[in-house]
Amino acid sequence: MDIEASEQTAFLPEQVEGILMAAIDAVLKNEVYVEAKAQHWVDSICDKCMAGLHSLNKPFKYIVTAAVIQKNGAGVHAGHSAFWDIGSDNLCQVSWPTDKMREQQGSRIKCIVTAFGLSL
């Protein structure tokens, strides 16, 4: 199989990570945590992620989940389990803010986004 052809039809987490981070940044960059806005933020982030993934024009069904929580010193754990074709299906999970942004970001928001790519 041609490597270039397989990359064009593969769900590459390295390629998807930028899309997810850009969507989170667009929605949360200048926000301060307000519980009443959390559901709207989640909807906006998921919509932007889906639009970005769709623009890749790859043969996948996508599932995007997002969690927006208030940073208060408690830990957060996220886990996933799947039964799929490991040759074509994959996932990408990002956490925002990144380690580099943590000192600069005083908004008290933590966001975790997961995108699943399931081949058709």
From TrEMBL:
Which Pfam family is one of this chain's hits? Tctex-1
Q: Which GO terms describe its cellular component?
A: cytoplasm; cytoplasmic dynein complex
Q: Name one GO biological process term.
A: microtubule-based movement
A GO molecular function annotation here is: dynein intermediate chain binding
Which superkingdom?
Eukaryota
The record's section on InterPro entries has: Tctex-1-like, Tctex-1-like_sf
Q: What is the protein's name according to its record?
A: Tctex-1
> Could you tell me which species this protein originates from?
Tribonema minus
